[in-house]
Amino acid sequence: MRFRLTPRETSFYDMFAASADNIVTGSKLLMELLGADTPARAEIAERMRAAEHAGDDATHAIFHQLNSSFITPFDREDIYTLASSLDDIMDFMEEAVDLVVLYNVEELPKGVDQQIEVLARAAELTAEAMPHLRTMDNLTEYWIEVNRLENQADQIHRKLLAHLFNGKYDAMDVLKLKQIVDVLEEAADAFEHVANTVETIAVKES
């Protein structure tokens, strides 16, 4: 009988992949939000809430596995950081949708569609990258591209803020819309945090 001297817990990889796939679901719901009327937005918010709960479940499953595993595929701190950062992305996307519904926003400002498109692309790249954690291969382009997308998101965010403060909006509407675009920017930052964490892991494992 053969014994493995350095066993590695493989279920973490599957759970990270599931968490990232759920984020893709969330990004698609954000895309749906753009062309939806008020009643449809409420239904999208319900589905986004369900996706956010599924993300929480995935995160808790990773934490439970982490606490019950003697040997992990890479540093425990990095596993915790990666899981938490993936969870943050889903939280920010759910918050943005919820704010649109709660504030009864009739029309989102021009530029929000660009923010959401960046998030959707970052979600796809993140989901594609997670399976590569098993081998740590073909990840460099992933974190470079996500960092580029985050820079693009920063530029879009600044233009949106300038647009909101150009005097054409009511002061109360500015406050509401600024909170929404700020949360979407936080989601872009969270994607970059995930990419940076993956880069850290890859460097340690190389």
UniProtKB/TrEMBL annotation:
It holds the Pfam family PhoU_div. InterPro entries: PhoU-like_sf (IPR038078), Put_Phosphate_transp_reg (IPR018445), UPF0111_domain (IPR052912). Coiled coil: none annotated. Belongs to the UPF0111 family. This is Phosphate transport regulator. The lineage of its organism: Bacteria, Bacillati, Actinomycetota, Actinomycetes, Kitasatosporales.
